[in-house]
Amino acid sequence: MPNDVKVNHRIKFLAIICLAVMAVFVMRLFYLQIVEHDKYIALANKEQLKRLSIPAKRGEIYMMDDGRLTKVVLNQTVYTMFVDPAIVDEPEKVKDAIREVVGGNAVDGFSKLVDKKETRYQVVAKTVTRTQAQLIKKRQLKGIGFQAESRRVYPEKKLAAQTLGFVNFEGNGQYGIEGMFDKELKGKNGLLQSVTDVSNVPLTIGNKNIDLPAQDGRNIVLTLDRNIQAYSEQALARGVKRSGADSGSVIVMDPNTGKVLAMSSLPTYDPSKYNVVTNAQAFNLGAVNNPYEPGSVMKTFTMATGIDTGAVKPSSTYVNTDYIKVEDRTITNASKGETGTITFQHALNWSLNTGMVTVAERLGNGTIDSKARSTMYRYLHDKFKLGELTGIEVSGEAAGRIIAPDEADGNAVRYSNMTFGQGMDLTMVQVAAGFGAMVNGGTYYSPTVIEGAVDKDGQLVKAAPKPAQPNVISPSTSSQMRDMVIKARRAFYASSDLPGYRVGGKTGTSQTIVNGSYENGQTIATYLGFGGDTKPRYVIMVEVSGKGKNLAGNIDAMPIFTDISNWTIDYLKLQPQR
Amino acid sequence: MSYSTTATYSRRRSNWNRNQNTVAFTSAVKLGPITHTVLVALMITVLGLIYLTQATKATSYDYEAQKIDTKIAELSDEKTDLEVENARLTALSEVQSSSVARAMTKPSTPAYVGN
Q1: Which site among A58, A135, A204, A227 would you substitute to test the B interface, given the most B Cβ atoms closer than 10 Å to its Cβ?
Q2: ipTM topping 0.95
Q3: Is the pLDDT of residue A228 over 90?
Q4: For chain A, what percent of residues have pLDDT higher than 70?
Q5: Residue A318 CB partners (closer than 8 Å, separation 6+)
Q6: A492-542 per-position pLDDT tens digit
Q7: Rounded CA gap, A299 and A305, in Å?
Q8: Which of A170, A309, A319, A398 is the most exposed place for a label (fewest CB within 10 A)?
């Protein structure tokens, strides 16, 4: 049967070919599915798996408003409106929509941009609100798109601008609280990894899905009181204008807690328009960032040191001749004529340099020797924390400097100058915090602007209080200093204050250093004081300065203090004492 | 070790009693191997369809969830907008320049009991 054999042979041959083809398929499949498994899995994941970042909401910033929380920095979703001119089929209607709905937010020359048919992407409006975007979407025009972005909103405009800081175009906080707490305010972006459809809608299929929710930024509550802050800024602006000065700073603190109630500087700026600021000084918070020689306000610290060590009493006397020699230098009084035997209270009232140098001499063995200098340094630097960082939670705090007695420059001449506020670099926040300790009974509270944080339920979670340093000076010294400072103020400005309140203060007029030497024609005016009823309720420090300006503490800074002080007494509803 | 099962039926049990109906059914239809294969294939197809229905159903929930998420986001944006508007309207500068504030008069110095 040769034919059967032939058919059988053909069938076998066909079977072999089939097997061979199948073998090729099997080998190819083996190659694709086993050998190249990881590669194709990766390709498939790349195509199907999407990793979407869930942006964390930046934390908001609150101030206090007579004990209540009020938002002063918020977030708002705004849109950048763009067109694809190649797709726009009704350009006139698109232009009308932009003109009628978006109006002032449209970019210059948007009409021409819509007509650029050869391009595919033209931004025609910025910071478009959600309502505006919805109105435009309702018109169902082709070729219009919106890109959402979050922006910071400052409803109070320039209020506490330097303390708050701003957020730049990259979303990073700069200056103030925004700069200091940038990481905490930013929060942590979440991650959504999921298989998605063509519209990027995440689907629950697959086993590689990740859903990490975003951790929103911390909502920070400041100790600043919105009303005290606003009034202080207005009073400062009025005072600076009255003096014809260029700049000024003010700080209001609660001496019983170290909480800063108001803090601002001039010139200032609007954080929402930080990009148009031409004077970089506007970003600086003078009270924290700019150390200077505070001048005669430091005489209160010299007196406190003298009284607390027992070297002098307010009623102790010395012979004033309007000048005093320290080594090869002669120090003179700015106010002359109060010569003869006078008390240190009198010396403080008249701000006599000779009196303060005498206190320093009595701290030593009749001269400003090593003992006197060490004692002064211990009080100024170690106890009142002057010339070092206070830890206030605002970016860019300057440490300032007090030269130690064991340094080459820490000689008697320098320390004699330090008794009346020269030869040292201090920030206002350091001086105000130290003065707070001086009048509150002797406890140093580190200055703070952080009241706490707002939790998810909108409740205030108070920040842990910073450690206080008690017994900086004795309660008796503190009481005597309060009386001295009140008398110093009442000696000249008794009629300025509301009757029945205990208000005290000290002027300061400091020369500035120009080309390495003190310049009499350019002075900085300072006033440092406190006010209250049965106890001190606030400490206010004011500074006014200007290039080429001869400013005086009693003329240019004191009225600003008085303005804020009298208003604060009413605001805090303090009752007058008999 | 081996096991064996021993069944012992009594004569009485193996006898049918009165009033007992006994039906012995033997199917006349005999299924061959092809029919079995087709049936198995059909069962697999049905199971596959059930799986697909469930998977599609799960996906439809995803779209539903997405819609709800979008709605939540919209409402959240709306809430934020309202908060911003509220903050703007209650800003001190706004309040101070309002007609109500302009119509206010400066208070006289307060008198306290006991003074």
Answers
A1: A204
A2: no
A3: yes
A4: 99
A5: A341, A342, A344, A347, A354, A355, A358
A6: 998 899 999 999 999 999 888 777 777 778 899 999 999 999 999 999 999
A7: 10
A8: A170
Min Cα distance B42 → chain A (Å) is 26
Which pLDDT band, with edges at 50, 70 and 90, does B57 fall under?
A: confident
Sequence-distant (≥ 6) Cβ neighbours of residue A208 within 8 angstroms: A45, A49, A193, A195
Q: Which of B76, B95, B78, B75 is nearest to B87 (CA)?
A: B95
- A395 contacts: CB under 8 Å, gap ≥ 6: A165, A175, A176, A177, A179, A180
pLDDT at A568: 96
Judge whether residue A176 has pLDDT over 60: yes
Check CB contact under 8 Å for B115 and A155.
Answer: no
Interchain pair A203, B61: CB under 8 A: no
- Please give the domain boundaries of chain A with CATH numbers for all domains: 224-571 (3.40.710.10)
User: How far apart are alpha carbons B48 and B42 in whole angstroms?
Assistant: 10
Residues of B in contact with A75 (CB under 8 A): 80
Structure tokens at A185: 């305010």
A233 is written with which tokens? 């800024």
A111 to chain B, any CB pair closer than 8 A? The answer is: no
Residue B82's contacts (CB-CB under 8 Å, 6 or more residues apart) are none
Residue in chain A nearest B115 by alpha carbon: A578
Asked whether the predicted pLDDT for residue A406 surpasses 80, the reply is yes
CB contacts, 8 Å: B93 with chain A: 156-157, 159
Q: Which residues of B touch A161 (CB under 8 A)?
A: none
Q: Rounded to a whole number, what is the distance in Å from the CA of B8 to chain A's nearest CA?
A: 57
pTM of the model: 0.83
Residues whose CB is less than 8 angstroms from the CB of residue A378 and which lie 6 or more positions away in sequence, other chains included: none
Q: What is the pLDDT of residue B17?
A: 67
Give the C-alpha distances (Å, rounded to integers) separating B11 from A290, B6, B18: 117, 16, 15
